Structure formats: structure tokens, C-alpha cells
């Protein structure tokens, strides 16, 4: 008598969202996914990480449906932001897998993990794993002793299967997946951003039209962020406002805040999650505030300077500033350090180890901001050789969102932060300009202009006017120098040649010019 064939586990597909027909493939990201997670049965894992609103969930969703095209592959989607959401999704999966309905707690999670591991081919998406401590990363000994859950033990393992994580925290790479298994959800290219906008707004715009120029400028204002593009395009489609009208609206700070705070229902995102561009980074801010207070304070002050060309020296000076304190001692405002004054922490008589520890704290804070994609280092020459020479950029919408939330939450805090930002730039902008300070003057010009915009907030209008006068004098001085040098025919020759000779010639003429000033 023949024995019955062994029970074959049935294929199960449990995905929370419908397929996104407006999804736009991003060439660089798609290439990495194809390389790291090909459709095969061997064990493999990867993590998509990046700024909130950069499209990580939509990238994972597209991958999930691409694997569903294989009728032998089971696909599961789990929200990994909290223990509760993780357990609830595992419970839903248990029902679909036909597991006993009397399971709960640890027994339920273990049973689901074990069953998935028996499937011949499966994919598990762990979405929004932003709090990595839930999965044992960076857990304190106290948390372990108190029995805080380590959900990583319930993630299926074995010789087969694919696990794809999404997280705002780059620290997931090298901890929950291998150091070379990370996929950065990099910003969209201008072509990709335009394709997404057209798809969601349902507009027909031809190159050369005024509307096309408006769209290009609008996407620049939105810094090609997928969440912002989707929300703005949906608003334009629903209200039938012209792109030009919307562009004018967001060029004024208060109106921009109001416009970007709007959110629309998105069937491809969790209904309880905010779709507002002004609120999407609150989660990341809360994690940073809990994990590294210095990083949070630095980020708060950076909301009031220029979002580009942020040198490490400026970040370090911000870290040294007193935060959220009364800035007067015995009725006199505290003085702040000048470039030509040696701070106590860096004086020859100070404790060297203490200074080193301070630098290490600042570096650790900056690294944390990099891991959450709030700061992006520029890759220029020696910029990556040491932190002291590194220069960073910040997403302009992140900066807007931080200043908006600080304004709404506590106006007095906004006053303190704008004052600190001004004082730092006032300290760093040179008081004399000569060849040795040209680069520094150029580096802080944008920050000078930006901090001046907040003069009313911290009520230091006279001091701001003094700083702007220094910047104006420098620009006038350089303009006069350039006009004088330009009269000499050899200048155009060296400029066309490029390289250091042009600068050397300019400096030579500068020396001659200085004799006559």
C-alpha cells in the first residue's frame, strides 16, 4: 500500500498594501536590489535605509510584488516599528498559514517563524525597523535584565529565504544585515522626480511650456523627495491649482509651512502614519533626542543656518554652546568666543584628554546624524580624511520641518536656537579679510545670510546688522579687487588655463593692489 505523499506547505502571500501603479523605478536602487536580492531560494538578506520620506517602503513594496509573480514563493509583510505591530502582523500571518488559533505571545511568534522556515521559498519584508533596540542593536544591560524583547530571535533563518528590512537608521547595516548588504534610498534624479510628479498629478506638460519651467523649479524646491512630490502632486490634482500658483505659495516661509503640512490619503502607506512632509521626521528626531542629546541640539541649531556647506568646525562650535539656558549672568549677557581667543577647553594648560573626549562626543553626534540621513558629507578631496575637514549638506525640507516643529512647539526655544545660530556664525565669520581668510569668508557667507533672516526671532537686529556689514564690506572689497585685476590682460589667459596659476596670479595682483589701498 502506497504511503500518502508528505504534506506540501501551501504558498501564502500576506502584503498590507496594494501594488503601487505610480511607482517609479530608481535606476541605482533597482540595480543594487537586483544584485543583492535576486529571485532565488538561497538564504539572503538586505536593508533599504535612508531619510524618512525617501521611498523605502515603496521600493520594498515593488520588490515584494515582483517576487509574488513566482507562484511558488510566499511573501510576508510585517510592520517592525513597535513590538505591538510586529506581534499583530505575525498573528495575521498565523491565521493565513492555518496555525492553531490558541497560540499567543512567544509561542505564536515562534510558531510563525518555524513555519516560514519550512517553506521552500519565501520573502519576509520587515518595514520601518527604525527602533533597532527592539531587535537587540545597542540594547543596554538594564533593558536585557528587565526582559525587554529582542524580536530578532523571531526573524526566520535557515538555508533558504529572503529577508528585506527598511529603516531610517543606517546602523542597521553591519548589525542586522552584513556591512555590504545595505541599499541607500538615494534621492531621485530630476528625470525620476518629474516622472513621479506627472504620474500622480496627472498632467500633460511639454518641454518649453511655462508650466514645465514651473514644474522644474517646484521639484527643486522639494529637493526631489518622493513623499513631498507625491503629496504636492496629489494636492495640485485635487485642487486644480496651477503649478505656478503653488510654487509662489511655498516660496514664502509661513505659507510654505502651511502648504507642506497638508497631507492626503495614500493607500500605499499606513493610515495612522502622517503623510505630512512637516511631520514625517518627528519619529527620527525623537529617536535622536533619546539616544544622543548633543546630536539633537546640533540638529536643532542647524535648522537656522544654510542647509549647504556646513563645516565640521561650525558643528563643533554649536556643540560647545549652552542650550536652552538663561544666557545672562548677573544681568550681563554671556560673552561668546572669538576666533582670536583661545577657549578654555583648548588652552595649553587644559586637560588634553578632556578635549579629546569632547571631540569624540561631537564626532559621535555627527555620525548619528549621518546615520539618520540628516547630514550628508561632501566627498571632496581631503574632506573624508578626517572629521576636522569634513563639510556637510542637509536636506532643505528636513531643515524646514525642524524649524516648523520647533516654532509650533515652543517659541522661547526657537528664540534661543536662532540666537545660538547667529552667535556661532558671528564668531566664525572673519573680522579681517586677507588671503588667509578668503576661503573662510566664502564658506560662511551663506550662513550669514540665513541667520540674518531670523533677526526678529532673537531680537538682536543691531548685532545682525553689524555682521551683515562685515559680510558686505568683504564682498565689496573682493569685487573691487576682481575689477582691478580684470583690467590686466594676463588674467583672462590664466583663468582660461585654470588651475592654481589663476589663483597665484590673482594673489600677485592683490599684493600690488594692496599697496595702493
TrEMBL record:
Segments of skewed composition (Basic and acidic residues): 331-341
Region (Disordered): 331-359
Superkingdom per UniProt: Eukaryota
GO molecular function: ATP hydrolysis activity
Protein name, UniProt field: ORC1/DEAH AAA+ ATPase domain-containing protein
InterPro entries reported in the protein's UniProt record: AAA_22 (IPR049945), P-loop_NTPase (IPR027417)
Organism placement in taxonomy: Eukaryota, Fungi, Dikarya, Ascomycota, Pezizomycotina
Domain ORC1/DEAH AAA+ ATPase per the UniProt entry, residue ranges: 42-133
Record Pfam families: AAA_22 (PF13401)
Amino acid at each position: 500500500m502506497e504511503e500518502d505523499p508528505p504534506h506540501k506547505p501551501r504558498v501564502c502571500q500576506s502584503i498590507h498594501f496594494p501594488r503601487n501603479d505610480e511607482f517609479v523605478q530608481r535606476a541605482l536602487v533597482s540595480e543594487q536590489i537586483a544584485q543583492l536580492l535576486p529571485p532565488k531560494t538561497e538564504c539572503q538578506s538586505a536593508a533599504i535605509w535612508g531619510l524618512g520620506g525617501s521611498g523605502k517602503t515603496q521600493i520594498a513594496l515593488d520588490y515584494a510584488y515582483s517576487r509574488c509573480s513566482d507562484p511558488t514563493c510566499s511573501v510576508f509583510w510585517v510592520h517592525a516599528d513597535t513590538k505591538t505591530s510586529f506581534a499583530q502582523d505575525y498573528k495575521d500571518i498565523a491565521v493565513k498559514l492555518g496555525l492553531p488559533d490558541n497560540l499567543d505571545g512567544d509561542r505564536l511568534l515562534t510558531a510563525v517563524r518555524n513555519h516560514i522556515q519550512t517553506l521552500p521559498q519565501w520573502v519576509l519584508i520587515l518595514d520601518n525597523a527604525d527602533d533597532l533596540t527592539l531587535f537587540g542593536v545597542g540594547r543596554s544591560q538594564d533593558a536585557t535584565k528587565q526582559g525587554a524583547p529582542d524580536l530578532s530571535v523571531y526573524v526566520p533563518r535557515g538555508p533558504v529565504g529572503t529577508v528585506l528590512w527598511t529603516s531610517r537608521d543606517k546602523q542597521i547595516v553591519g548589525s542586522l544585515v552584513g556591512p555590504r548588504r545595505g541599499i541607500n534610498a538615494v534621492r531621485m534624479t530630476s528625470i525620476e522626480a518629474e516622472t513621479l510628479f506627472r504620474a500622480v498629478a496627472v498632467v500633460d506638460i511639454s518641454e518649453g511650456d511655462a508650466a514645465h519651467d514651473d514644474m522644474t523649479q517646484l521639484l527643486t524646491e522639494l529637493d526631489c523627495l518622493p513623499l513631498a512630490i507625491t503629496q504636492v502632486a496629489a494636492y495640485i490634482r485635487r485642487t486644480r491649482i496651477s503649478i505656478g500658483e503653488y510654487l509662489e505659495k511655498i516660496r514664502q516661509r509661513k505659507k510654505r509651512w502651511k502648504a507642506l503640512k497638508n497631507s492626503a490619503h495614500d493607500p500605499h502607506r499606513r493610515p495612522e502614519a502622517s503623510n505630512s512632509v512637516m511631520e514625517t521626521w518627528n519619529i527620527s528626531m525623537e529617536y535622536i533626542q533619546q539616544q544622543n542629546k548633543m546630536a539633537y541640539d546640533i540638529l536643532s541649531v542647524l535648522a537656522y543656518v544654510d542647509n549647504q556647506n556646513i563645516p565640521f568646525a561650525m558643528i563643533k562650535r554649536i556643540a560647545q554652546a549652552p542650550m536652552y539656558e538663561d544666557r545672562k549672568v548677573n544681568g550681563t549677557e554671556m560673552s561668546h568666543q572669538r576666533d582670536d581667543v583661545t577657549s578654555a577647553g583648548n588652552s595649553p594648560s587644559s586637560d588634553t584628554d578632556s578635549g579629546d573626549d569632547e571631540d569624540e562626543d561631537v564626532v559621535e553626534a555627527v555620525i548619528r546624524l549621518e546615520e539618520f540621513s540628516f547630514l550628508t558629507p561632501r566627498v571632496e578631496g581631503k574632506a573624508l580624511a578626517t572629521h576636522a575637514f569634513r563639510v556637510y549638506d542637509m536636506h532643505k525640507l528636513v531643515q524646514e520641518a525642524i524649524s516648523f516643529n520647533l516654532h509650533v512647539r515652543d517659541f522661547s526655544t526657537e528664540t534661543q536656537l536662532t540666537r545660538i545660530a547667529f552667535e556661532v556664525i558671528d564668531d566664525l565669520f572673519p573680522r579681517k579679510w586677507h588671503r588667509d581668510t578668503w576661503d573662510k569668508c566664502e564658506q560662511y557667507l551663506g550662513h550669514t545670510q540665513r541667520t540674518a533672516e531670523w533677526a526678529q526671532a532673537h531680537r538682536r537686529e543691531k548685532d545682525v546688522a553689524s555682521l551683515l556689514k562685515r559680510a558686505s564690506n568683504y564682498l565689496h572689497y573682493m569685487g573691487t579687487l576682481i575689477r582691478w585685476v580684470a583690467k590686466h590682460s594676463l588674467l583672462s589667459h590664466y583663468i582660461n588655463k585654470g588651475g592654481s596659476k589663476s589663483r597665484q596670479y590673482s594673489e600677485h595682483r592683490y599684493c600690488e593692489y594692496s599697496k595702493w589701498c
